[in-house]
Every structure is written in structure tokens, then in C-alpha cells.
Amino acid sequence: MAVPPIELSRYCVPYTPFKRRLEEATICLVSSAGVRARADAPFNPDGDAGYRAIDGTASTAELTYDDKHYEHGCVDSDLNCVFPLDRLHELAHELRIGGVAPRHFSFGYTQALRELRESTVPHLAREVDRVRPDAVLLTGG
User: Fold this and answer.
1) What are phi and psi of 4, to 5 degrees?
2) What is the tens place of the pLDDT at every residue in 32-86?
3) Total domain count, the chain
4) For residue 117, what are the domain limits?
5) Is residue 64 part of a domain?
6) Does residue 4 belong to any structural domain of this protein?
7) Strands, E, within 25-65: which ranges?
8) Quick one: DSSP state of residue 67?
């Protein structure tokens, strides 16, 4: 018996207005590009509803990605195009943002939308909340 698809568009996307100055804000990255530390377990590119935490002091040279569902030319040249961690470090150094969060997060490709919505996203939201960023920059893969 086929499971009916989940219509994520039926769920409200929470919105909180940003009222701080970027120069005072700590930024956390969250991506669906399958980015991870090279030492971490790879994402299964055929479907993986898990996520990985990424150290905020890392550079993109210490990271990689696991995905086969989009063109990777730009990502192979510069991982910052999907996970701009080096750019955040530069902005913090230039005092254009208040700082870089101590941890960032990435999840990979999955068609298990129910598991993603009911399990992964709530766990990930709690992890982001523990980091206490002032803003979260979401990127896609």
C-alpha cells in the first residue's frame, strides 16, 4: 500500500523579525547540502534523514559533502557557495557580523519527508537553540 505524500506547504513556517544589527549578531549556518567534516560519517547520498554538526572554528578545507542530486561544479571549486563558513569568518574578522556560532549544521538528501519533519527537524531545531545564535543562515544543496 502506497503511503500518501506529505504536503509540507500546509505547515506554517515560523517567522521572527530580526531586530539586531548584523555587526552584533552571531550567525549559525544550517544547510541541506550534505556538508560534513571530513572525519564524520558520510551521508548516504541515496537517502539520509540525519544531520551533522560542524565545528564553528573549521574552515571549508576541513569539510566535504555527500550529494549526487545537483550539479557540483561550483561546489567542487568552492564549498562556500553552499556552506559559506569561510565567508562568515571573514565577515566576523572585518567586524561586519558579531561572530560565528560555535557549531553549524547540515543535513543531506532524503525523500523521507515525514521522518525529516517529525524527527530530524525538531532535533535539529533543539541543537540550533542550544547554540543560541542571533540569526540562522539557511542554504540549500
Assistant:
1) -65, 145
2) 999 999 999 999 988 888 999 999 999 999 999 988 777 777 887 899 999 999 9
3) 1
4) 21-139
5) yes
6) no
7) 26-31, 35-37, 51-55, 63-65
8) -
Rounded Cα distance, 141 and 29, in Å: 13
Q: Which of 44, 50, 45 is nearest to 68 (CA)?
A: 45
- Where would I find the beta strands (DSSP E) of the chain? 26-31, 35-37, 51-55, 63-65, 99-100, 103-107, 135-139
Q: Taking the mean position of all CA atoms in its chain, how far away is CA 76?
A: 18
Phi, psi of 33 (to 5 degrees): -90, 5
The segment with the largest mean pLDDT, out of 1-5, 11-15, 105-109, is: 105-109
Residues 6 or more apart from 30 whose CB is under 8 A from it? 104, 105, 106, 124, 128, 136, 137, 138, 139
- Whether the model clears a pTM of 0.70, i.e. scores above it, the answer is yes
Q: Does 8 map to a domain?
A: no
Q: Are 45 and 70 in contact (CB under 8 A)?
A: no
Instruction: Note the pLDDT tens digit of each residue in 88-131.
Output: 999 999 999 999 999 999 998 888 888 888 888 899 999 999 99
